[in-house]
Design brief:
Order of helices and strands: HEEEHEEHHEHHHEEEHEEEHHHE
Structural class: alpha/beta
Helix content: 25-40%
Oligomer: single chain
Largest sheet: 9 strands, mixed
Shape: globular
Number of strands: 13
Number of helices: 11
């Protein structure tokens, strides 16, 4: 009896192994969604406006390979649906596509400026993505001028997939020009839960797709309130001490020189003894090399180099103060994260003023910024002077 029972159990185990996964989907039957965009179609109903959602699905046979380079077949297809519920529209994709939608490779979410400017709408829409267990929290989120779905149609010879082109453009912009690092869905969720202000990459499509601005979001108002230009974005990056290569121009005796910043050390101290006039002290230590100059002075002279260093220090300080004033007076947004310093090192004071930092009594409006920049040029390039 015992022998028969063991034999029966063995057969059952073998049958379980041979059965396989009941919910398996062959890879050929999956529709890999790598890009997503949201546009505003009709805002007549302010509580639940009409939306256009675009899903970019990869077509494997359209991607150039060693065996099929330069093929004229598109590497993607964009499925568009309209409605008032993101979830219902995603369901509709499954009815019009030949493949089962697969979202785990989604890399980029593009939201139109009109959607971002409507109070609470951006947060409500992102909540749908955050709750979806099939989506990664590392999805990069960007804002697009005009129609976001048009951005998902822009391709280049090097990047036949628009979503991949955007991902590479954001990373390269951060790495090589000092623009802000890409912001993920997980980052935004944390900002929104704490009602913190933040900046997202802002894309514009004309003849080419460009990333040269930042969309500023007001935490308590829960919407986009304005734009930072390239100079503002660089100033914010310098303030935060982000360790990426940065290029900055400065005037010198009616001429211009360009410094490549390779090392940056930022120290921030906040004096909260008077909450009606909080003092913010920023010290920046900057090291770099001269990349381009129209000066006629001899850069082998220590006196000339010291003068150039002083001018660069003044230029960096000026830019940071101008951007801080813009954020403070024009947008009312603490995207410089002064709140973080207060919460960490002045917790009791922060508990008293946190609900009135960017609204109500608006203590951030009267905060005073003091900037001290020390610049050191450790290389002047291959020659000492220009003609």
């Amino acid at each position: 009896m015992k022998k028969n029972r063991n034999c029966f159990l063995g057969i059952c185990s073998l049958l379980l192994i041979l059965t396989g996964c009941w919910d398996v989907v062959n890879i050929e039957d999956r529709g890999f969604i790598i890009g997503n965009s949201i546009d505003l179609v009709d805002s007549a109903n302010s509580d639940q406006p009409e939306l256009l959602v675009t899903n970019q699905i990869v077509i494997g046979s359209g991607i150039p390979s060693a065996a099929n380079e330069g093929g004229d077949k598109k590497a993607f297809i964009n499925f568009k649906t309209t409605g008032k519920s993101i979830y219902k529209m995603e369901e509709e994709i499954a009815t019009i596509s030949n493949n089962t939608p697969f979202y785990e490779h989604l890399t980029t979410l593009i939201v139109s400026e009109k959607v971002a400017e409507k109070e609470r709408l951006f947060t409500n829409l992102l909540d749908t993505y955050i709750r979806n267990v099939n989506l990664r929290r590392g999805i990069q989120v960007v804002i697009a001028k005009n129609e976001a779905n048009k951005v998902l149609e822009y391709t280049t010879p090097d990047f036949p997939l628009p979503a991949m082109h955007i991902e590479e453009m954001l990373e390269r912009g951060s790495r090589e020009t000092g623009l802000l690092a890409p912001t993920t869905l997980g980052d935004i969720e944390e900002y929104q839960l704490n009602k913190n202000s933040y900046v997202l990459p802002y894309l514009e499509l004309k003849d080419v797709l460009s990333y040269q601005a930042g969309a500023v979001f007001h935490g308590p108002k829960d919407k986009m309130v304005g734009l930072f230009n390239m100079d503002d974005m660089l100033a914010l990056s310098l303030f935060r001490g982000e360790k990426t290569t940065k290029i900055i121009e400065a005037p010198f005796k009616d001429n211009t020189f360009t410094l490549q910043i390779n090392r940056l050390n930022s120290t921030l101290n906040v004096d909260s003894s008077d909450i009606s006039a909080i003092k913010i002290n920023l010290t920046l230590e900057v090291e770099g090399i001269i990349k381009e100059t129209f000066m006629t002075e001899d850069l082998s002279s220590q006196k000339v180099v010291e003068s150039v260093q002083d001018e660069m220090s003044k230029e960096i300080s000026k830019r940071i103060k101008e951007t801080f004033t813009k954020a403070q007076k024009e947008f009312g947004t603490d995207v410089f994260r002064i709140w973080q310093e207060l919460e960490t090192k002045h917790y009791e004071k922060w508990q008293k003023i946190k609900d009135n930092w960017e609204e109500g009594e608006y203590y951030f409006k009267d905060a005073q910024l003091i900037v001290d920049v020390v610049t050191e040029i450790y290389s002047i390039g291959a020659i000492n002077r220009t003609r």
